[in-house]
Write a structure and sequence with these properties.
There is one protein chain. The protein has helices spanning 2-8, 17-31, 34-46, 50-72, 84-95, 100-119, 122-129, 132-153, 174-191, 197-212, 243-271, 284-300, 312-317, 323-345, 348-363, 374-390, 393-410, 419-432, 434-440; strands at 78-80, 157-158, 166-167, 306-308. With 443 residues, the protein is mostly helical. Helix 4 (50-72) runs antiparallel to helix 12 (284-300), helix 11 (243-271) packs across helix 17 and helix 17 (393-410) packs across helix 18. It is globular, with a radius of gyration of 21 Å.
Length: 443
Amino acid sequence: MEAIAAYFRFAERGTNLATETRAGLTTFMVMAYIIFVNPSILNAGAGIDMAAASAATALVAGIMTIAMGVVGNYPFALAAGLGLNGIVAFGLVAGKGLTPEGAMGVIVWEGAVITILVIVGLREAIMNAVPLSLKRAIGVGIGLFILFIGFHNGGLISGNAGDPPVLATFPTQPGHFVFLAGLALTIVLYVMKVRGALIVSILATTALAIIVGVAQVPKEFVATPSFATLLKFDLGNVFSLGAITAVLTIFAIMLSDFFDTMGTVTGVAAEAGLTDAQGRVPGVGRVLVVDGLAAAAGGLAGISSNTTYIESAAGVAEGGRTGFTSVVVGVLFLLAILLSPIAGIVPPQATAPALVLVGYLMFMLIRDIPVADVEDGLPALLTMILMPLTFDITVGIGAGFISWVLIKVVRQKAGEVHWLMWAVSIAFAIYFAKDYIEALLPK
């Protein structure tokens, strides 16, 4: 145990084995839904076998999250990225007509490019070039995004990404009342400073969900895994669209993956108190290498890009401060390959209250943003509000970057803009205009 504590630097970060284990269990319970959600999305849009995708989703999440803990020593968990899997299934396969293997080939390409950018130091340099106010705004925006996801998963807010949210002003379904009861319990436990408040809430709300019929205990607890999706990728299929369209397609997905991770890592690390005075994450290069390799690994395994999860903040809220939290999460994902029905018992209404509380905790970063100064305040607002409204972290970050640069130029302070901020803002402008650019290309 002493060797584990020394390797993960428990004393330096003010934590211990019990706290890290509890944090890992909390993060896993909040994330476990992906074992079932990712296969359902890939099956609906790309016809990928759900059983095989479920096993592979848990396998890659387990391996890469353990790698994150051991190599990066941060409490970040990884799994198939929501949003990116939708792009793969509905954008690349159903929309552009790629084969499922071809779509996974795109993910391998973008993961490889991101990893190269990390190795040459460009990805870390971009993170360090971002002004502190925007880094904090990204953390706040992700917090609001998590809170929004909590209410969405709890059933009180409905609607798809980009559509106006619809509020269930008077709950009528049993799941609504389970969520509200869980939210009330979560708030009470947190205010009373009960240790393990989130995991106690999740377990208690799950029990209530079973009692009222919102969740069911499965008859079978052991499943025989199938790994039929492994190595089902095709690197050449995307170029059937034409070289320019293929490059733009890879670029758009890479940009989304690139900045989703940047926002998540910065926001969660800040909530854990692991950033420096400039909002930078020490040793972030190791984190980014694992994340880049995870993106490619998701494509190689045929289950879409794996990325660092914003739900990692749930473990941080339970006191997780080191990579041992990630190791616990990863081991539980590997166990879930054989015991996936156990993870399936926990309904989204039981984990949603934890997401709402985590959203609040991350929202508190707003106190350090000088919102009265338009140079910082307006880009921060766009960053924060567009993430939950569009269900897309990348859109919020892109709007914040472009508006920050624009305001600096208008105020004749272009000299204060780092050249990487110029480059990234231009890249975001291309990203936002990609549909228009594609429309101009010859068919």
